Amino acid sequence: MESPLITIFSPTYNAESFLPYVFETLQKQDYKNFEWLVVDDCSTDNTIQILKALQDKATFPIRIIQNETNQMVTKNIEIGIHNANGKFLYLTGHDDGLTDNCLSTFVEDWNSLDIQTQDNICGLVYHCEDQDGNFIGTKYPFDFWISNDFEMRFKYHVKGEKSSFHKVEILKKIQYSYPEIDVYIPENLFWFELSYRYNFMYINKVLRVYFQHDSHQNISKSMGPGKKYMAGFSFFFSEIIRKYNTYLRKNYFKMWVILQFNYIRYSRYNLQSFSGIVKNAENKLVVALLIPFVIIFELIKFKRLI
């Protein structure tokens, strides 16, 4: 059997309400050479039963991997990458849909590139819209623009959820170990590592429906001292600074300072002492100088001491 060109990958957890919607958007694709790979993270509802029922009526392969223990999204992405059969991986949430021409648009755009360009990029990155057709975030500064996430986010300040097709062979080369310090560490650590090594092509087209619903939890709105996930976020900022310290300081100095600022904030949210924060910092003097500004910021914005 011919291997699929594209693996559409969805990590799932208690997704019984959303899977029929996701499935219907896959059934409508006008490009058919793809598989749907699902890694289920120990769902306690009818997610698995629904997926198995969808397997029976699907016009494309559906593969299901069931975790024995809850792994959270970052580990699930690693599992998905190393089990993908396609040449490209397209990551979606368990409640995200695809526009009808999503896959055919990608294939057409990819085939329009010359071989040298194809060889020199990791994949193509597009935009998302919500279920009401509203554009999410901001557009890229150029069409068919070759760049990386550092420049895209930190220089041009492009915002919002994006939609990406990446070469599986390259994704499998990225080895990133996450300590078991929290149930959630932001998966952007993996994508920044990928972006540090490779360029992408950014295209101003919408291909993914990023579904908004009442049960979405916005972690940023629940941040604060002792709150859930703060250890993971503290690690996230400290790792970005540690791994890309010189690169960020040289190329994106303002963001380099902001990252130190957020390292302090989230480390305090994780109930670390200021002395411990300075001791563990990559740039101890900078962090020590920023601490009074962090305290003032918290008092003004949140009316609390951290």
UniProtKB/TrEMBL annotation:
Residues in Glycosyltransferase 2-like domain copies: 8-155
Transmembrane segments: none
InterPro entries, alphabetized: Glyco_trans_2-like (IPR001173), Nucleotide-diphossugar_trans (IPR029044)
Matches recorded under Pfam families: Glycos_transf_2
Superkingdom, natural source: Bacteria
GO molecular function, one term: hexosyltransferase activity
Name of the featured protein: Glycosyltransferase 2-like domain-containing protein
Organism: Epilithonimonas lactis
